Amino acid sequence: MPDDLRKGQPTLLGCYQDDVKRDLKFPLGTDTDPETCFQRAAKNGNKYAGLQNGNECYGSDTYGKYGVADKSECNMKCDKDSTMTCGG
Prior knowledge:
The chain has 1 helix and 3 strands. It is α+β, with helices and mostly antiparallel strands. It has one domain (about 5-75). The mean pLDDT is about 90.
Protein backbone atom coordinates (compact mmCIF):
# COMPACT_ATOMS: atom_id res chain seq x y z
CA MET A 1 0.00 0.00 0.00
CA PRO A 2 1.55 3.32 -0.99
CA ASP A 3 1.89 6.46 1.09
CA ASP A 4 -0.33 9.47 0.40
CA LEU A 5 -0.84 9.35 -3.38
CA ARG A 6 -1.65 13.03 -3.57
CA LYS A 7 1.92 13.90 -2.53
CA GLY A 8 3.62 12.24 -5.50
CA GLN A 9 5.52 8.98 -5.79
CA PRO A 10 3.83 6.00 -4.03
CA THR A 11 5.66 4.37 -1.10
CA LEU A 12 5.02 0.81 0.05
CA LEU A 13 3.64 0.81 3.61
CA GLY A 14 3.39 -2.95 4.08
CA CYS A 15 0.90 -5.76 4.27
CA TYR A 16 -2.40 -5.21 6.09
CA GLN A 17 -5.29 -7.41 7.11
CA ASP A 18 -8.75 -6.90 5.67
CA ASP A 19 -12.30 -8.05 6.29
CA VAL A 20 -15.55 -8.34 4.35
CA LYS A 21 -16.25 -4.77 5.47
CA ARG A 22 -13.26 -3.37 3.57
CA ASP A 23 -10.54 -1.33 5.23
CA LEU A 24 -10.00 0.63 1.99
CA LYS A 25 -13.51 1.94 1.30
CA PHE A 26 -13.61 2.56 -2.43
CA PRO A 27 -13.46 -0.28 -5.00
CA LEU A 28 -11.61 1.06 -8.03
CA GLY A 29 -11.89 -1.84 -10.42
CA THR A 30 -10.29 -5.13 -11.24
CA ASP A 31 -7.97 -6.23 -14.01
CA THR A 32 -5.42 -3.69 -12.82
CA ASP A 33 -1.75 -3.47 -11.90
CA PRO A 34 -0.13 -1.42 -9.12
CA GLU A 35 0.60 1.66 -11.24
CA THR A 36 -2.92 1.77 -12.68
CA CYS A 37 -4.43 1.25 -9.23
CA PHE A 38 -2.39 4.09 -7.74
CA GLN A 39 -3.43 6.37 -10.61
CA ARG A 40 -7.10 5.50 -10.14
CA ALA A 41 -6.92 6.17 -6.41
CA ALA A 42 -5.17 9.51 -6.91
CA LYS A 43 -7.73 10.51 -9.55
CA ASN A 44 -10.46 9.54 -7.06
CA GLY A 45 -8.82 11.87 -4.51
CA ASN A 46 -7.72 9.06 -2.20
CA LYS A 47 -4.60 9.21 -0.03
CA TYR A 48 -4.00 5.44 -0.11
CA ALA A 49 -4.40 2.54 -2.50
CA GLY A 50 -4.07 -1.19 -2.16
CA LEU A 51 -4.39 -4.33 -4.23
CA GLN A 52 -5.89 -7.70 -3.32
CA ASN A 53 -6.32 -11.08 -4.97
CA GLY A 54 -3.93 -10.33 -7.80
CA ASN A 55 -5.95 -7.57 -9.45
CA GLU A 56 -8.51 -5.86 -7.18
CA CYS A 57 -7.84 -2.15 -6.58
CA TYR A 58 -9.14 -0.19 -3.58
CA GLY A 59 -8.62 3.37 -2.39
CA SER A 60 -9.28 5.30 0.83
CA ASP A 61 -8.10 8.16 3.01
CA THR A 62 -7.38 5.86 5.97
CA TYR A 63 -5.95 2.37 6.36
CA GLY A 64 -4.95 -0.20 8.95
CA LYS A 65 -8.11 -0.64 11.02
CA TYR A 66 -7.66 -4.44 11.00
CA GLY A 67 -3.96 -4.29 11.78
CA VAL A 68 -0.75 -5.35 10.12
CA ALA A 69 -0.58 -8.75 8.44
CA ASP A 70 2.48 -10.97 8.24
CA LYS A 71 4.41 -10.24 5.06
CA SER A 72 4.02 -13.92 4.06
CA GLU A 73 0.26 -13.32 3.68
CA CYS A 74 0.87 -10.83 0.86
CA ASN A 75 2.42 -13.13 -1.67
CA MET A 76 -0.09 -13.25 -4.53
CA LYS A 77 1.47 -12.31 -7.85
CA CYS A 78 -0.17 -9.54 -9.85
CA ASP A 79 -2.22 -10.83 -12.77
CA LYS A 80 -0.67 -8.29 -15.14
CA ASP A 81 2.90 -8.42 -13.84
CA SER A 82 4.05 -11.59 -12.12
CA THR A 83 7.25 -9.91 -10.91
CA MET A 84 5.14 -7.89 -8.44
CA THR A 85 2.77 -8.87 -5.62
CA CYS A 86 -0.83 -7.71 -5.43
CA GLY A 87 -2.17 -8.81 -2.07
CA GLY A 88 -2.84 -12.25 -0.74
